[in-house]
Amino acid sequence: MNSLSFRTQQQGIRRTLWWLLLMLCGSVAFTVALVPLYDVFCELTGINGKGVNSAQVLQSTGIDQQRNVEVQMVTRTAAGMNWHFSATLSHKAVHPGEIHQMWFRMQNLGRTTGRARAVPSISPAEASNYFLKLECFCFNDQQLAAGEVLEVPVVFQIRSDLPEDLHRLTLAYTLYPQTGP
């Protein structure tokens, strides 16, 4: 093998390694930036499905007594999590503009104290801007000792200017384990 082809081969390997390193750094940077970029995208488009966290009650629009909206409650626990999580009611008919309270039950089935946080999602996505969570257990982590049972509320209001074609909303919570301080 002559030294010129060996040198050319080494330069090619070096160039390939630099490109791989650059792509790795770009992938890490993209991964770190993905969550904030997604939050900005969802805020701009209104499709986040998270609902509005609000301490203000909409009083100016009033209660729409002529209309019923069915709110379905769906609960899940993350894979491998040894907790039971359920809504005390699977659905409730509400008038837009009224304030309602629903209860959820958590139980740590494990042998050690655990901490979890519920992440909400509202569907259809266009309804998320009309669903106001006034008080929610999802705002904070929930810590339960082994075998402990906890009932927690969500207080919500559906804005009375909810589009007429929306008759059913689903409030889904997924319970995820929390670690660290």
Automatic annotation (TrEMBL):
<keyword id="KW-0186">Copper</keyword>
<comment type="function">
    <text>Exerts its effect at some terminal stage of cytochrome c oxidase synthesis, probably by being involved in the insertion of the copper B into subunit I.</text>
</comment>
<keyword id="KW-0472">Membrane</keyword>
<feature type="transmembrane region" description="Helical">
    <location>
        <begin position="17"/>
        <end position="38"/>
    </location>
</feature>
<dbReference type="InterPro" id="IPR023471">
    <property type="entry name" value="CtaG/Cox11_dom_sf"/>
</dbReference>
<protein>
    <recommendedName>
        <fullName>Cytochrome c oxidase assembly protein CtaG</fullName>
    </recommendedName>
</protein>
<keyword id="KW-1133">Transmembrane helix</keyword>
<keyword id="KW-0812">Transmembrane</keyword>
<dbReference type="GO" id="GO:0005507">
    <property type="term" value="F:copper ion binding"/>
</dbReference>
<dbReference type="GO" id="GO:0005886">
    <property type="term" value="C:plasma membrane"/>
</dbReference>
<dbReference type="Pfam" id="PF04442">
    <property type="entry name" value="CtaG_Cox11"/>
</dbReference>
<dbReference type="InterPro" id="IPR007533">
    <property type="entry name" value="Cyt_c_oxidase_assmbl_CtaG"/>
</dbReference>
<keyword id="KW-0735">Signal-anchor</keyword>
<comment type="similarity">
    <text>Belongs to the COX11/CtaG family.</text>
</comment>
